[in-house]
Structures are given as structure tokens and as C-alpha cells.
Amino acid sequence: MSDRVLVSAALATLVLAVSLGVEPATAQAPAAKPFTPPPSSYNPPRTPWGDPDLMGVWDYQSLIRMERPDDLAGKARFANEAEYEAWAGTNAPNRDTEKGVGAYNEFWNERNFVRNLNTSLIIDPPNGRYPPLTPAAERRRRDIVAKASELASWEDYHALARCIATQTPNAPQAYNSGTYIMQSPGWVAIIRERLDTRLIPLDGRPHIGPNIRHWNGDPVGHWEGNTLVVETTNFTDKQRLGGMSGASVPEGIPFGNFRLIEHFVPVSPSRIEYYATIIDQATWTRPWTFNLPWQRDDDYQIFEYACHEGNFALANSLRGERVQEAEAAKARDAGK
């Protein structure tokens, strides 16, 4: 608990700094038809000031992928938990490393998968797939994928690989997925184990001016009954799609001037249904929404994510690129 007290003290200072830096509202991206999550009959406990109490540590590891796999095409949900368990039994990562089976570093992954009967995290479009990219976004994607095979410097890596920031919205990840929600009157803080803390005001303030961009945008929240709704704008264009990549959208799509609308819907004392709607007319031909369940985990220990840009991974991968380039040049010379 001492670590959480320290986090609380730090957040109090940050909240004051943020509250003093607000600018008047300016024009934002055109509004789209809002996504409405399914209703929930669960009535969560209240904070001393009367807001729904979502405080605690949550985890959102998912065995369900962002896009629906081909073998489940046309099937939005598993019929029951038994069908899900049967599918999970053949699709979960193999952890039997003692017998030489399993991926490198698999033993580090906790794999606390949250049960989910949906066959894809994407629920809109109904086919469970990303909508098509715009022509301009497809050109950006090709440029990034091509450049990924020619990593010349640290600037060619995305923000997460450089230990700067992970992307918003939250996407499934294999480790360091603990997330601590803390509330105070007029604020919600979402403290992610991997790199970032989001401070969300609930006082109805406008978004900051368009000339100010943040790694994870400018969030403004409000309550709709028991549901926390957060709209985020003002993202930097230096972030990328990252962990939300799928078969039809390889990792590397840059996010920029888009709107994110999130719904945190408590459905039981131990579960939040998290919905994220991405509205980005420059990248996608239509808005799309994914649903990622969060599970309360009172035993989860959140540790410091001790990641820094100059670590061994970045330096060694760049060194490996130079070795590969030298070997390719030698092969070309030998063929002349």
C-alpha cells in the first residue's frame, strides 16, 4: 500500500499542474454517431463524494485477438463457456518450457487471460475486422513497413520500443498489464504499469487548443449513470498502432488527429467492460469499436516499469542491423 500512497501524492501535484494549463476550446474533428454500450444492471458502490467507485487494480490480458480469425468468420460469440474453453485449449500459448516447448521468454508472461465469449475484440464493424484504410493511410503504412526493414537510427523505432510511451487506447498485452484506477473528487487517474499515467478531469472543461499535442492525448470525462465516458483528442502523430495490430493492419499505422471515445462499464464487482471507439477520418474509412474486458485482481503487484531508451535491446538491434547490412554488401560484392 505504501507505493500507492506515493502515487497518490505524485498525482496530486500533477493534477494541479494540469488544471492550471487548460486553454479555451477549439474546433475538433467532426462528430460521429456515438457508440452506445449494452446496458448493465449492476450498481457499483459509491465513493464518499457519490461517484461510482471503480478504484482498484485491474488486468485486461486477452486470449481473444483484435480481429476475428478466419476459422471463426461469421461467428460473433462462442455459444457458451464450454465452447470458449475448448477453443482456448488449442489457442493459448504453450507454457511447457521445461520440455523445450514454448516461445522465448514465455516464462515471464503471467497469462492471466480474462474470459471473453466474443470471438474478436472488434465488435464494430460486425465482421470483427478493421475497416479499410484510406488511400493516404495505406501509403503511410507501406512507407513505415518498408522503413522497418532499414532501421538506421533510434528515431526509426516507435515510442513504445523507445520506452517513451505506450499507446492509448489500451490494447491487449502479454505482460505488465496491471492498471490501477484511482479517483478523487472531479478526477480519475488511470495508472498503467507499462509507462503511462492518464489524468482525466470530470469538471466539463473543454479540450486544449489544437497546437498542443500529448503522447496519449487530452482526455475529458464524465459519468453517464454508472458508466465512465472519456473523450480524448489532441494526440501526437508520433504514436503508432502498436499492440492493436492484426492480420489486415500490420504494426506501424501512425495515429494522429483522431478522436477516441471510451466507455468503462462496471458489470460486476470484479469486471469492467471497456469499449473504445476510434474516429479517424484520415486513417480509417469509418469509425470502429473494440470491447476489452477488465478483471479486478486484488493480488496483482504493480511494479516500476524500468524501461529506458538506451537499454541493451535498442542498441543491440541497431548493431544487428549494421551486421546484416555488411553481410548483404559482402554478398553483393561476391556476386559481381
Gist of the model:
With 336 residues, the protein is α+β, with helices and mostly antiparallel strands.
Would you kindly provide a written description of the structure presented here, covering whatever features stand out?
It is built from 4 helices and 10 strands; from the N terminus they run H-E-H-E-H-E-E-E-E-E-E-E-E-H. The chain has 336 residues and is an alpha+beta fold. Strands 1, 2, 3, 4, 5, 6, 7, 8, 9 and 10 form a 10-stranded antiparallel sheet that branches. A hairpin with a 4-residue loop joins strand 4 (187-192) and strand 5 (197-201).
* Average of pLDDT: 80
Question: What share of residues is helical?
Answer: 10-25%
Rough outline: globular
Give the strand content: 15-25%
Number of helices: 4
The unreliable regions are: 1-31, 242-251
Distance between the termini: 67 Å
Q: Tell me the major beta sheet.
A: 10 strands, antiparallel
- How many domains? The number is 2
SSE run: HEHEHEEEEEEEEH
Radius of gyration: 21 Å
Extended strand count: 10
Label the structural class: alpha+beta
Provide keyphrases for this structure:
single chain; 20% helix; 10-stranded antiparallel sheet; alpha+beta; 2 domains; 336 residues
Sequence-ordered SSE layout with sheet pairings:
Blueprint: H1 2-20, E1 56-59, H2 81-91, E2 122-124, H3 135-148, E3 179-184, E4 187-192, E5 197-201, E6 218-224, E7 227-233, E8 259-268, E9 271-279, E10 288-296, H4 312-335
Antiparallel strand pairs: 1-3, 1-10, 2-10, 3-4, 4-5, 6-7, 7-8, 8-9, 9-10
